[in-house]
UniProtKB/TrEMBL annotation:
InterPro entries reported for this sequence: HTH_LacI (IPR000843), LacI/GalR-like_sensor (IPR046335), Lambda_DNA-bd_dom_sf (IPR010982), Peripla_BP_I (IPR028082)
Organism of provenance: Arthrobacter liuii
Pfam families: LacI, Peripla_BP_3
Protein name, entry field: LacI family transcriptional regulator
Keyword tRNA-binding: no
Domain HTH lacI-type: 10-65
Alphabetical UniProt keywords: DNA-binding, Repressor, Transcription, Transcription regulation
CDD domains for the chain: HTH_LacI, PBP1_LacI-like
Leader sequence segment: none
Length: 342
C-alpha cells in the first residue's frame, strides 16, 4: 500500500489506488447509503480506507445527487417522554437507511410550528416528519401544495402520508379490559379534542362500552391535555366527590395523564389496583416501574418510526396512511376480577 503524502487529505482516488481498484468500485464499497458489498474487494477497500484515515464527505456527494440525506423532525417538545422516544426511534430508522435526522421543537402554536418547519427546510432537508398534533394544523396542506416530501407520525389529517398507531383499537382494548374485569362505572380521560389520537382513542373506548351495553356518563368523559397536571385535575374531578359517586375504573388516554390520576387518587387515599382500576396508554418505560405498575396500551414506536421514514424515502406505496396495531400490557394497576366491581 503506497503511503499518502504527509499532511495531505486522503482522497477517494488515494483509497482506490492503494486498494488496487477503480475509483467507481471504491466509491460503491464506501457508499453509506446501502448495506455495503460483502465481497472481498469491498472489504479490502473499507480496510484500506480506515488505515489511511479516509473520511467520506457524504454531504458533498449527496449535494451532487441533489439531496442532503437529511430529514427534519418537528415535535412540540422533547420534554414529553413519548416525543423524545419517538425522535430516538426516527433517528435510528433514518440512520439504518443512510439518512441523518435533525429535530426542531415548535410548541403548540401554529405560527411557531411554521417557523420551525421553515428553519428545517432552509437547511435543505430532503423531507419533514411532523409529530405535531393539531387536526386544525394548516402546515401539512401547505407542504402538499409546495410538493415538499413529508409524513405525519402518531397522528393523521386523513390526507398527508401518515404513520400511526391504530388508536381506535387501542382505546377499545383498554376499556374492554376493564369491562372484562367486571367494571361498569368507567370514566375516560381523553386527549385534547383537537387531536386525531384523542378522538380515535375515545371512539374505541365508546365502542367497548356500547358492546357491553354500558351508557357513558357525560360527567365521566373528560377531555384534557396530555400532561401530568391535566391528569391530576381530571383525577380530582372524578375522585374528589366522595366514595359513593365515583368510577371504579378509569382509562387515561396516555400514561402521563394516568400518573396525574394516581397522584389525585393518593391524595384521596384511594389505592390504585385495589379501590380503583387504572389503564394508561403508550406504555412508556416508567409505567412498569411505578410502585403499582401501570396497565397500559403499548404502541410500537419503532415500527411507526420505520414506516414514517419509508413514507418519505420510498414514496408511492399504498396505503399512504399506515396503522400499526397496539397491544394491551396488563399490570397491577387494573387489579383483578376479585377486587371489582365494588
Amino acid at each position: 500500500m503506497e503511503p499518502v503524502a504527509t499532511g495531505a487529505p486522503v482522497t477517494l482516488k488515494d483509497v482506490a489506488k492503494a486498494s488496487g481498484v477503480s475509483i467507481s468500485t471504491a466509491s460503491r464499497a464506501l457508499d453509506e447509503r446501502g448495506t455495503g458489498s460483502r465481497s472481498a474487494a469491498a472489504a479490502q477497500v473499507r480496510k484500506v480506507a480506515e488505515e489511511l484515515g479516509y473520511r467520506r464527505n457524504s454531504f458533498a456527494s449527496s449535494l451532487r445527487r441533489g439531496e442532503t440525506r437529511t430529514l427534519g423532525v418537528l415535535v412540540p417538545r422533547l420534554s414529553d417522554t413519548v416525543m423524545a422516544l419517538m425522535f430516538e426511534h426516527l433517528e435510528r430508522a433514518a440512520s439504518d437507511r443512510g439518512y441523518f435526522a435533525m429535530v426542531a421543537t415548535s410548541g403548540d402554536d401554529p405560527d411557531d410550528e411554521r417557523r420551525a418547519a421553515e428553519t428545517l427546510l432552509d437547511r435543505n432537508v430532503d423531507g419533514l416528519i411532523l409529530a405535531t398534533a393539531r387536526l386544525d394544523d394548516d402546515l401539512p396542506r401547505r407542504l402538499r401544495q409546495r410538493g415538499v416530501p413529508h409524513a405525519l407520525v402518531l397522528r393523521t389529517d386523513g390526507e398527508s402520508p401518515s404513520a400511526i398507531g391504530d388508536d381506535e383499537v387501542g382505546g377499545y382494548l383498554a376499556v374492554r379490559h376493564l369491562v372484562d374485569l367486571g367494571h361498569r362505572d368507567i370514566a375516560i380521560v381523553t386527549g385534547p379534542d383537537f387531536t386525531s389520537t384523542g378522538i380515535a382513542r375515545l371512539a374505541g373506548a365508546r365502542k367497548a362500552l356500547a358492546e357491553a351495553d354500558i351508557e357513558a356518563r357525560d360527567e365521566w368523559l373528560i377531555a384534557a391535555g396530555y400532561g401530568i397536571e391535566n391528569g391530576y385535575s381530571a383525577g380530582e374531578t372524578l375522585l374528589g366527590n366522595g366514595g359513593e359517586n365515583r368510577p371504579t375504573a378509569i382509562f387515561a388516554a396516555n400514561d402521563t395523564i394516568a400518573m396525574g390520576v394516581i397522584a389525585a387518587a393518593h391524595r384521596h387515599r384511594i389505592e390504585i389496583g385495589e379501590d380503583l382500576a387504572l389503564v394508561g396508554y403508550n406504555d412508556i418505560p416508567l409505567s412498569a416501574r411505578l410502585s403499582t405498575p401501570l396497565t397500559s396500551v403499548r404502541v410500537p414506536l419503532d415500527q411507526i418510526a420505520a414506516t414514517a421514514i419509508d413514507l418519505i424515502v420510498n414514496p408511492g406505496k399504498e396505503p399512504h396512511i399506515r396503522k400499526s396495531l397496539p397491544t394491551l400490557i396488563p399490570r397491577e394497576s387494573s387489579g383483578t376480577p376479585k377486587h371489582f366491581p365494588r
